[in-house]
Amino acid sequence: MKVLANDGISKSGILALEKGGFEVITTKVAQEQVANYINENNIDVILVRSATKVRKDIIDACPGIKIIGRGGVGMDNIDVDYAKSKGIHVINTPASSSESVAELVFGHLFSGVRFLHDSNRNMPLEGDSNFEGLKKAYANGTELRGKTLGIVGIGRIGQATAKMALGLGMKVIAADSFIPQVDVKVEFFDGQSITTTIVSQSLESLFKEADFITLHVPAQDGYIIGEKELAIMKDGVGIVNCARGGVIDEVALVKALDSGKVAFAGLDVFESEPKPEMAILMHSKISLTPHIGAATGEAQDRIGTELASQIITLLS
C-alpha cells in the first residue's frame, strides 16, 4: 500500500511505515494536483499537516483513499465528517506536539516581558551607536514568576503550558467550556512530581484577572478576543496565540497595543495566513513566528511514529 506524505513526515515515521510494509512517497504535490496524483499513483493514505487541504472535492475524486491523516492537532483543513461519511478513516496526533507548542508559548512570553523581539531588531542597527539609549529603552522588564497566566482552553496543549507556568512559579487559571476541572501533574527529572487541580472559570473573569493570556482553542466562528474582551483586561496584559488564526481580532489588538492597554503580543498564527497583515508584521510590540508551534525534531518524530502506528493498526 502507498502513503503520500504531502507535507512531509519524519524519518522515524517513514521507517516505521516501511517496516509495516507501506511505500512512503514524500513528493510535494501542488494543491490543485493532489487528486490527480492520488489516482494516478494508487495512493491509499494521504498525510498532511497544515498546508495541504483535503476537502470534499478531493474526497469525491479519490474513491481509493482509505485514510486521511493530519500530523498535528487541528483538523480544520480536512472535511472530517464528510470523509467519515464516505467510510474513510481520519486520524491525527493530538498528544505529539503539546510540549513543543507550550515551549513556544513561553518563548513568546519571555520575549515579550524582556523586549527580546524588538531588541533583536534594533541591536544590529544601533547597538554600536546607541547602546545606552537601547539599554534605557529595554530596562523596564517584567518577571513571569508570581504573575497570573490565564489559559483559554485547558486541553492537552493548555495543560502542557500550565505545567511550565507552574514550574516557573506562576499562578495558573483556565477557562474551558468542555473541561470543568483537570489535575495537572508536574514531573521533575528525578522522578518526583506534584499534582494540582485547575478549575475552569468564566472567560470574563479570566480576562479580568490574568496578567498574561494564552489561547489553546480550535478554529472558531468568531473572535474569542475582540474590542469588548480587550477592554476588560488588565492594563499592560500580554497575549499569546499559538493556536489558530482568527481567534483574535487583529485590528482591535493593534489598537490596544498602540494605546498601551496590551503591553505585548506573541503570535504564531494569523488571520490572513499565509500572508499576515503588514501592520502585524511591522509592529514593535509583537513577537512573531511563522506557524511553527509543532516544528521541533522531537515533536515531528512523535507525530511520524504515532501516524505510522495508527495506519498500520487500521490497514493491517
**Strand fraction band?**
15-25%
Give the number of DSSP strands: 13
Number of helices: 13
Helix content: 25-40%
**Structural class, judged by helices and strands?**
alpha/beta
What string gives the helices and strands in order? EHEHEHEHEHHHEHEEEHEHEHEHEH
Shape designation: globular
Mean pLDDT: 96
* Radius of gyration, in angstroms, nearest whole number: 22 Å
The main sheet comes to: 6 strands, parallel
First-residue to last-residue Cα separation: 10 Å
Neighbour order of strands in the largest sheet: 7-6-10-11-12-13
Low-confidence stretches: none
Regarding quaternary structure, how should these chains be classified? Answer: single chain
Domain D-isomer specific 2-hydroxyacid dehydrogenase catalytic: 9-315
EC number: 1.1.1.95
Domain D-isomer specific 2-hydroxyacid dehydrogenase NAD-binding: 107-293
Keywords: NAD, Oxidoreductase
Give structural notes.
With 316 residues, this protein is of the alpha/beta class. 38% of the residues lie in helices and 19% in strands. The chain contains 13 helices and 13 strands. The protein has helices at 11-19, 34-40, 56-61, 80-85, 98-113, 116-126, 131-137, 156-167, 203-209, 227-232, 250-259, 278-281, 297-315; strands spanning 2-5, 23-25, 45-48, 67-70, 89-92, 148-152, 171-175, 181-187, 193-199, 212-215, 237-241, 262-267, 286-288. The strands form 3 sheets. Strands 7-6-10-11-12-13 form a 6-stranded parallel β-sheet, sandwiched between helices. Helix 3 links the parallel strand 3 (45-48) and strand 4. Helix 1 runs parallel beside helix 13. It is globular. 42% of the residues are buried. The mean pLDDT is 96.
